[in-house]
Design brief:
Four Helix Bundle (Hemerythrin (Met), subunit A); disordered N terminus; 2 strands; 2% strand; two-stranded antiparallel ribbon; 237 residues; globular; 8 helices; mainly alpha
Length: 237
C-alpha cells in the first residue's frame, strides 16, 4: 500500500524502491565526476593518482560517500525549507577539498608548514572511519525522514533516542569528522584553515536553517529538546 503521508503521496512504495536503486546506481557516476573535478586541483587525473595521498583520498572519500548513500532514503517530496544551505555546503566542502589537494601537489613542493609522514594517513583513516560510523548510525536512526535538503514531511517524528539523546545533529558531527579525515590525508594547513573559515560556518548556517524549520514543525517540544541537548558535540557544543 502506498505511504500517503510520506513524500506527499506522489510515489508508491514500489516507485520509491526504484528511485532508491537509481540513486545507488548513480553514486559511482557522481564519484567519478567529483574525483575528476578534484584531480584538476592537482594538475589532472594522471598527476593526482600518481601519488599515495591522492589514491588514499579517492578510496576514503569514496567509502565515506558510498556508505552514506546506501543508507539514505530517496530525497523527494515534503515541504522545502533548505534556503540554499545545501548549495553553500557543496561550495564550502568542495572548495576545501580542492584547495587541500592543491596544497599538496602545487604548494607543498615549494613550501610547507607541516611535515608529512605515513602517520597522517593512519590518522586520516581513523577519522574517516569514525565519521562514517557516526553518520551512518544517525542516518539509520532517522530512517525515512533523513534528507540531504532541509524538508518537513507529514507524519515526521522528533527523534530523541540514540545519539539524538545527546546531540541534535549527529549526522553533521560525523560529516565534519569525516571531512577532517579527508583533509588530514594531505597534512594541509590551508585545508584546516578553510575547514574553520568555510566548512564550519556553512554547517552552522545549515543547522540554523534546520532548527528554525524543526521549531516551526514541533514548537515548544523542540525548544525544550534544545535545552537539554547540544548541537554537535556531547556536553560541549
Amino acid at each position: 500500500m502506498a505511504e500517503k503521508s510520506f513524500r506527499d503521496g506522489k510515489f508508491s512504495d514500489e516507485q520509491m524502491a526504484r528511485l532508491r536503486r537509481f540513486k545507488l546506481w548513480m553514486t559511482p557516476v557522481r564519484l567519478v565526476i567529483a574525483l575528476s573535478v578534484f584531480s584538476l586541483a592537482a594538475g589532472g587525473p594522471r598527476h593526482f593518482f600518481s601519488e599515495v595521498p591522492g589514491l588514499v583520498f579517492a578510496v576514503l572519500f569514496s567509502i565515506f560517500i558510498v556508505l552514506e548513500r546506501v543508507f539514505q532514503p530517496p530525497d523527494f517530496g515534503g515541504e522545502g525549507k533548505d534556503k540554499d544551505s545545501i548549495i553553500l555546503g557543496w561550495v564550502a566542502f568542495g572548495g576545501t577539498y580542492a584547495l587541500s589537494i592543491a596544497d599538496w601537489y602545487l604548494i607543498r613542493p615549494k613550501w610547507a608548514l607541516l611535515l608529512w609522514n605515513w602517520w597522517w594517513l593512519l590518522a586520516a583513516g581513523l577519522l574517516v572511519a569514525l565519521g562514517s560510523i557516526i553518520r551512518v548510525i544517525a542516518i539509520r536512526r532517522l530512517g525515512r525522514f533523513f534528507t540531504t535538503r532541509v524538508r518537513l514531511h507529514d507524519g515526521q517524528n522528533l527523534i530523541k533516542e540514540g545519539f539524538y539523546k545527546y546531540v541534535r545533529h549527529p549526522a553533521y558531527t560525523g560529516l565534519l569528522i569525516g571531512t577532517l579525515g579527508c583533509i588530514t590525508i594531505f597534512a594541509s594547513v590551508l585545508g584546516y584553515g578553510l575547514f574553520l573559515l568555510l566548512v564550519v560556518p556553512a554547517m552552522l548556517y545549515r543547522i540554523r536553517v534546520e532548527e528554525l524549520a524543526l521549531t516551526e514543525r514541533f514548537g515548544d517540544e523542540y525548544v525544550e529538546y534544545c535545552k537539554i541537548t547540544k548541537r554537535l558535540i556531547p556536553f560541549v557544543y
